[in-house]
């Protein structure tokens, strides 16, 4: 079964840290770039970060740059999101997402998000 | 960053009637070398993750009912539900994946009139 399963969400105080995990199954994980996308309560979708298939490149939204770190372990089919210095406005459901992009003469082109996890709720509150 | 806008914010349509959602990007998302628009549509039902409906502006995903269709090119796009069904009640988002950061529209809520 092709799926992504997030874990690690919860309630955390401002300034503290939390790590999310996303385990993939049913497809060749190491072939895909992976993203984290978040959705604050009652709000729209916000891209957070991406790691390329081999972890060689990582990019972050300005809102999380310097505080969040994405990583992956292709031997475990898992992508992680380390979130430090959490703030109230980081409260959201965090989705792990597969990128349906492709390489063209060594240049990577992003693609549509063709597989989503069920989401992990992170609540930052004192 | 490419800014995505959608209209309307919400719409209420009678069962069996047509619903059309518009999406506009602040820059063209048409990649000239392959003549493809890097534009997707997602459906999000309450309490669920988004689901990819349409990619490359007009390619319907496998299993998506043919009442859903995407169109447009460059900076102007639309998603049409030709005959609204009760199960189509959801928020619909457009997204560009032409350039980083990948950005979404604010969403359009579709309800039954």
Could you give the distance between the termini of chain B?
Answer: 36 Å
- The total count of helices of chain A amounts to 0
Question: Which band does the percent of strand residues of chain A land in?
Answer: over 45%
Helical residue percent of chain A? under 10%
Q: What's the SSE blueprint?
A:
The complex is a heterodimer of chains A (126) and B (113).
Chain A: E1 3-7, E2 10-12, E3 18-25, E4 34-39, E5 45-51, E6 58-60, E7 68-73, E8 78-83, E9 92-99, E10 102-104, E11 107-109, E12 113-116, E13 120-124
Chain B: E1 4-7, E2 10-13, E3 19-25, E4 30-31, E5 36-37, E6 39-44, E7 51-55, E8 59-60, E9 68-73, E10 76-81, E11 90-96, E12 103-104, E13 108-112
Parallel strand pairs in B: 2-13
Antiparallel strand pairs in B: 1-3, 3-10, 4-5, 6-7, 6-11, 7-8, 9-10, 11-12, 11-13
Key terms for this structure?
heterodimer, A: 126 residues, mainly beta, 7-stranded mixed beta sheet, B: 113 residues
Describe this structure in words.
- The complex is a heterodimer of chains A (126) and B (113).
- Chain A is built from no helices and 13 strands.
- In chain A, strands 2, 4, 5, 6, 9, 12 and 13 form a seven-stranded mixed β-sheet that branches. In chain A, strands 1-3-8-7 form a four-stranded antiparallel β-sheet, with no helix packed on it. Chain A has a two-stranded antiparallel sheet with strand order 10-11.
- The termini of chain A are far apart.
- Chain B has 113 residues and is mostly beta strands.
- In chain B, the strands form three sheets. In chain B, strands 2, 6, 7, 8, 11, 12 and 13 form a seven-stranded mixed β-sheet that branches. In chain B, strands 1-3-10-9 form a four-stranded antiparallel β-sheet, with no helix packed on it.
- Chain B is globular.
- Classes of the chains: A mainly beta (126), B mainly beta (113).
- At the A-B interface, strand 5 and strand 12 of A face strand 7 and strand 12 of B.
